[in-house]
Amino acid sequence: MFQKILIALDRSDSSQQVFAEAIALAKATQASVMLLHVLSPFDGEYPGSVYPAIDGIYPGLHRETVQIYANQWQEFEREALESLRSLSQTAIAAGVAAEFSQNFGDPGRTICEIAHTWGADLIIVGRQGRSGLSEFFVGSVSNYVLHHAPCSVLTVQGLMKASQSDHQPQSKAAIVR
């Protein structure tokens, strides 16, 4: 059925759920997996952006601000890579052949490009439950992947806040071909 599963992960709480469901499916189908994290400065989970001061007013402060941001970004990148490495080892310990990659770019496009290049049969991606204006303004990686993927896509619904839905189940998944 599936031989190569691309697991797209971010740093959200629901990524553990996405990973667990993906590994269970990979074990059941004896598929290999690639764990993918895409670094993008436009997502809310990344270090805050730099608001440069006007060079002529406080040039020392501007350099310090940029240096602080660069250090935060490097630490974030290192932590994300270490998380991928750890998850890869967990997959291997569970008997699933695994590799990992961390790329920089637009998450939706990068996921689809890596899936195509790697020859994935399935992409597994989380869904945060955004809708309406939130999805319009913030965007939806899972929606982009569903419409542009070169293969089947499994979306794993993340945990929803009570205010979003008091009657929907906590976890659900759907495969779109």
Written description of the protein model:
The protein has 5 helices and 6 strands; from the N terminus they run E-H-E-H-E-H-E-H-H-E-E. By secondary structure, it is an alpha/beta fold. It has one domain: HUPs (Rossmann fold, 3-Layer(aba) Sandwich). It has a 6-stranded mixed sheet, with helices on both faces. Mean pLDDT is about 80; it is low at about 160-170.
Output the keywords:
177 residues, alpha/beta, Rossmann fold, 6 strands, 44% helix, globular
Question: What's the layout of helices and strands?
Answer:
Layout: E1 4-9, H1 15-29, E2 32-39, H2 59-93, E3 98-104, H3 107-118, E4 122-127, H4 132-138, H5 141-148, E5 152-157, E6 173-176
Parallel strand pairs: 1-2, 1-4, 2-3, 4-5
Antiparallel strand pairs: 5-6
Helix pairs in contact: 3-5
- Please give the CATH architecture: 3-Layer(aba) Sandwich
The pLDDT mean sits at 82
Number of domains: 1
Large-scale geometry: globular
CATH C-level class is Alpha Beta
Helicity, as a percent range: 40-55%
Return the string of H and E elements. Answer: EHEHEHEHHEE
